[in-house]
């Protein structure tokens, strides 16, 4: 089996589609399709069913991916170590983040780090938390920030931040003048909700049930940034991580505290070998500095 074909298969599994895999691997979608067809032919079984234009993993595909991940972790460690040995002095830092921190907090850390280390190249991607976890576990990335609902098997992890959620709404919303938004205020309101599996969404659903409140869920999305943008367009009200609205990136919204308090939890991830270069240590320090500064502003 060609290692490139294995990389293609793994990329499809962690991103959920051929198009996203092509972006991740910096190649074309037809090339992805050719590699997948070739690998299935060599294996003698189907890895995916093609359903309405989507690639859905077969049972055999899921079992094969389990073996692929186990082998890629070992290979990833070797690649990471070789890169670290090669790049001492100049180097590259590879960082991946969930969207909630990826557009406000992490760019602050990148800017501060680059001012001190202008010779260092930074590879940065904003991905879903599960993809961030896989990128770090494989050794492809040095640092990851992900939501706490991920499977932490195969990565070193610790709590990075637990910010209190804020309620965002259009400036002219009827709740914009209230100092605090409470569950009863959201009865019947057009609500911009996080995805059902998100831990903050689960907490909010529990609070609504306890207070017998039924917001009108208009949109479900895994991205707080999407909620803030839709709120600015007058679509409704929703809860987001305060990092999403850092640096006043979105005009036309007001952010208010929500009671009872609900907290996001994000983890900082490292590859399983735990190797820390000086550059990695410095970048992590900038992440914590950006976190502290943002907390003070909020």
Brief descriptors of the model:
298 residues; D-Maltodextrin-Binding Protein, domain 2; 44% helix; Arc Repressor Mutant, subunit A; 3 domains; alpha/beta; five-stranded mixed sheet; three-stranded antiparallel sheet; 12 strands; DNA-binding
Query: Helix amount, in percent?
Result: 40-55%
What's the pLDDT, averaged over the residues? 88
Order of helices and strands: HHHEEHEHHEHEEEEHEHEEEH
Q: What's the N-to-C terminus distance?
A: 52 Å
CATH superfamily membership of the largest domain: Periplasmic binding protein-like II
* Rg over alpha carbons: 21 Å
Query: What best-fitting shape do the alpha-carbon axes yield?
Result: globular
Structural class: alpha/beta
Question: What is the total number of structural domains?
Answer: 3
What percent of residues are in strands?
A: 15-25%
CATH topology of the largest domain: D-Maltodextrin-Binding Protein, domain 2
Q: Low-confidence segments, ≥5 residues, pLDDT <50?
A: none
CATH-derived architecture of the largest domain? 3-Layer(aba) Sandwich
CATH class of the largest domain, anyone?
A: Alpha Beta
Total number of strands:
12
Secondary structure tally, helices: 10
Family: Belongs to the LysR transcriptional regulatory family.
Pfam family, one: HTH_1
InterPro entries: LysR_HTH_N, LysR_subst-bd, NocR_PBP2, WH-like_DNA-bd_sf, WH_DNA-bd_sf
Domain HTH lysR-type: 1-58
């Amino acid at each position: 089996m060609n290692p490139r074909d294995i990389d293609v298969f793994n990329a499809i599994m962690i991103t959920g589609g051929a198009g996203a895999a092509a972006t991740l691997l910096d190649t074309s979608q037809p090339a992805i399709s050719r590699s997948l067809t070739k690998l299935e032919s060599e294996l003698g079984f189907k890895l995916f069913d093609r359903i309405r234009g989507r690639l859905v993993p077969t049972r055999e595909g899921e079992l094969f991916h389990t073996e692929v991940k186990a082998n890629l972790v070992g290979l990833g460690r070797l690649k990471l170590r070789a890169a670290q040995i090669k790049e001492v002095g100049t180097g590259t830092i590879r960082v991946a983040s969930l969207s909630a921190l990826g557009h406000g907090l992490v760019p602050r850390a990148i800017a501060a780090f680059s001012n001190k280390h202008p010779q260092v190249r930074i590879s940065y991607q904003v991905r879903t938390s599960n993809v961030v976890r896989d990128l770090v576990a494989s050794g492809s990335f040095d640092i990851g920030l992900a939501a706490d609902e991920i499977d932490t098997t195969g990565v070193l992890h610790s709590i990075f931040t637990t910010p209190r959620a804020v309620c965002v709404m259009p400036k002219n919303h009827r709740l914009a003048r209230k100092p605090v938004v409470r569950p009863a205020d959201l009865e019947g309101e057009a609500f911009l909700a996080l995805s059902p599996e998100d831990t903050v969404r689960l907490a909010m659903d529990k609070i609504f049930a306890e207070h017998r409140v039924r917001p009108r869920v208009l949109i479900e999305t895994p991205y707080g940034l999407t909620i803030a943008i839709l709120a600015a367009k007058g679509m409704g009200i929703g809860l987001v991580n305060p990092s999403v609205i850092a640096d006043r990136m979105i005009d036309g919204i007001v952010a208010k505290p929500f009671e009872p308090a609900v907290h996001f939890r994000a983890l900082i991830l490292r590859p399983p070998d735990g190797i820390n270069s000086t550059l990695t240590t410095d970048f992590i320090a900038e992440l914590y500095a950006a976190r502290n500064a943002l907390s003070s502003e909020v």
